[in-house]
Amino acid sequence: MSAEKNWRRSSYSEPRPPGFAVRTFGGLKVRQKLAVLHNIFFFVLAVSVYLSVIPLFSQHIEAARERELRMVSEIFGAELPMNASRQPQDLSVYDFREGDAASLGLSAEGRTFLEEHPAETWRQNKHVLFRLSRTPGQYRRVSLSSAFYDTALRQARLSLFVVLGTIYVLSIVVLEFMIMPQYVYQPLRVMLNADESLLRDDREHELISERFILNDEIGQIMRSRNAIVSQLRHQEDDLAHALQKLEEQDRLVSLGLLSTSVAHELNTPLAVLQGSIEKLLESNQDAHTLERLARMLRVTQRLRKISEGLIDFARVRSRETEPVALHGLIDESWNLVAIDEKASAVSFENNVKVNHTVLGNPDRLVQVFVNLLRNALIAVSSGGVIRVESRCLQRGGQNWVSCTFIDNGPGIPAHVLPNLFEAFVSTRLDARGTGLGLTVAEGIVTQHGGTISASNRPEGGASLEVVLPAAA
Fold first, then answer.
1. What is the CATH number of domain 319-472?
2. Fewer CB under 10 Å: which end of the chain, C or N?
3. What does each C-alpha distance from 352 to 19, 203, 322, 359, 404 come to in angstroms?
4. pLDDT, tens digit, 9 for 90 and up, residues 61-116
5. Where are the domains of the chain?
């Protein structure tokens, strides 16, 4: 095993870093790189085509010249008349002359050949033919014009150059302004913009829309990037939720310790107070006094239940739940809050539907509702309105009942609203600043599997919504 590891380590060679030329070219933007590569490719292609076609064309031109020369040589050997007016029209383009060797420019080698072969022609160069004349000492000469073939070759070269240049320019234009922007430059720009949004934590624009994603390799990269970003965001949200839960648990632990201490301190004086009220009820005969004592006894009993509830809350002990009608529970909670003299100057509306029932513990829920109604009573002025409404919801395939407490008070300060349910926050509308009522209420609702939230109404006042599981 160690030998294999050593072999793998020895066989690995670190790649060489790019050289100066590679770094220089690599430092260009993608569009500049592709422009350089396109130009080089099409230039090499055009030069290759030009250098390949022109020699072939030149060969064909030369072959045509040779064929014409042979034809003229055969015609020249037929002893055509030297008078141009008597020559065929097609041959008038050729220069026919007759004279001695010196005047016609016949070489000594040509004279010797023609004297030895009087019936044949002598080709002095590519364009001039000689033969013996019938007149002794005279020779005949015909000259072919090379301008036609030279012009044709020049025109062919020029035409090929123009065609290749036009194709080159059109190809660059089509690639750089039509194909590459659509399939390369724009997708890259979209990815860069999405990455910039990701760095700015702009969740609305950090994912690439499907309408920009094509079914090619760049599209696969885009989809892979979207999946990675979505997974990272999901993990961030899970982590933030976990941290929030951890902070909430820590807060509830602190609240539980304080609640236990307060509850134990309250239990003894409440028991003494309850006993005293019960004795007064037994000894007093005045109806008005008996009514007030009975109300005081109910409040004292409620305080003892709240104290016991705080202890239960601190122990995180689950209570037995049962179907509870919200309408009656709201009425009972308001009757407890109505002990305050201010309640007589406030209009209370219980608009909870009588058939809306939730699964919960009545005593614990009354504690929540009393707290919310008492806070609303504190917030509104004389002549204010407190209204409770309910509606059914469906979340995650489960039925819920929403119970909303609405008042027309000044609302919740904006700086307090985000931390409204945190413990030990004194600057808020929570039981005149005790800092515990709404925190306890949130804990009770959470233990019931529900949620509680607060908001300010556009028309003024506060709205606190409690969502609880509906009774089956």
1. 3.30.565.10
2. N
3. 79, 39, 19, 16, 9
4. 777 777 766 666 665 655 555 444 444 445 555 677 888 888 888 888 888 888 88
5. 19-94+144-200, 207-317, 319-472
